[in-house]
């Protein structure tokens, strides 16, 4: 599998609140590239290409970060590590890139997607999800973008635990306890309904 996406950024020299604010006014997002060797390189990324890329790769898909330093360009395989957003505008304010070695495993929190309508829900049960993501380990190019769980065959009182997840080849789940991911629970009786039934019985007597 080859790396399909590339984001071009520039190395930046000025750091701090003032310079970062000026960058944002120019549609540039300040960021840091943490190399696989432990170095930190400050960069600036164009807003629109960054937002488009993030929609496609999230935190799970490797892409190439092309860094321009005074006309000298270098390319590095990376994952998006952390993003910071404006509290109400929701636009990016800062981003961290994490350099990876394509031959070494990484651990990433991968989103879960639940599809289908379970048999238990059709019979009156309630679908209860406990996790939005799970931590997986694999080489960077083997990491899935998401894990899809089809709940269609789940009956009332059925549970899918971490050990039950169907994962791609060369991918393993990282966990200490075999915790529940999703369950179908019996719907609890409403206290008001129970009281109403008892009242009706008493009146009939």
Automatic annotation (TrEMBL):
Segments passing through the bilayer: none
Name the record gives this protein: Large ribosomal subunit protein bL25
UniProt record similarity statement: Belongs to the bacterial ribosomal protein bL25 family. CTC subfamily.
Organism: Desulfovibrio fairfieldensis
Gene3D superfamilies: Ribosomal protein L25, beta domain, Ribosomal Protein L25, Chain P
Segments forming domain Large ribosomal subunit protein bL25 L25: 7-97
Upper lineage: Bacteria, Pseudomonadati, Thermodesulfobacteriota, Desulfovibrionia, Desulfovibrionales
InterPro entries the UniProt entry points to: Rbsml_bL25/Gln-tRNA_synth_N, Ribosomal_bL25/Gln-tRNA_synth, Ribosomal_bL25_b-dom, Ribosomal_bL25_C, Ribosomal_bL25_long, Ribosomal_L25_dom, Ribosomal_uL5_bac-type
NCBIfam families: bL25_bact_ctc (TIGR00731), PRK05618.3-1 (NF004135)
UniProt-annotated stretches for the region Disordered: 1-23
Any one GO MF annotation of this record: structural constituent of ribosome
GO CC terms, sorted: cytosolic large ribosomal subunit
Pfam families hit by this protein: Ribosomal_L25p, Ribosomal_TL5_C
Domain Large ribosomal subunit protein bL25 beta residue range list: 105-186
Job description of the protein: This is one of the proteins that binds to the 5S RNA in the ribosome where it forms part of the central protuberance.
Entry keywords, A to Z: Ribonucleoprotein, Ribosomal protein, RNA-binding, rRNA-binding
Subunit structure: Part of the 50S ribosomal subunit; part of the 5S rRNA/L5/L18/L25 subcomplex. Contacts the 5S rRNA. Binds to the 5S rRNA independently of L5 and L18.
Gene Ontology biological process terms in this record: translation
Domain of life: Bacteria
Gene: rplY
């Amino acid at each position: 599998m080859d790396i399909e996406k590339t984001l071009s950024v520039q190395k930046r020299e000025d750091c701090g609140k003032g310079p970062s604010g000026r960058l944002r006014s120019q549609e540039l997002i300040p960021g840091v590239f943490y190399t696989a060797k432990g170095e930190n390189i400050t960069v600036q990324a164009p807003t629109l290409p960054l937002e488009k890329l993030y929609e496609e790769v999230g935190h799970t898909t490797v892409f190439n970060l092309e860094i321009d330093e005074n006309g000298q360009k270098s390319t590095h395989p990376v994952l998006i590590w952390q993003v910071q957003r404006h509290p109400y505008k929701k636009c990016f304010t800062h981003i961290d890139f994490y350099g990876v070695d394509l031959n070494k495993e990484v651990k990433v929190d991968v989103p879960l997607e639940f599809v289908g309508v379970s048999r238990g829900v059709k019979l009156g049960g309630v679908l209860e999800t406990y996790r939005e993501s799970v931590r997986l380990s694999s080489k960077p190019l083997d990491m899935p973008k998401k894990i899809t769980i089809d709940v269609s065959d789940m009956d009332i009182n059925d549970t899918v635990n971490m050990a039950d997840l169907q994962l791609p080849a060369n991918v393993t789940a990282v966990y200490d306890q075999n915790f529940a991911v999703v369950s179908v629970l019996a719907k609890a009786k409403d206290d008001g309904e129970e009281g109403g039934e008892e009242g009706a019985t008493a009146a009939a007597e």
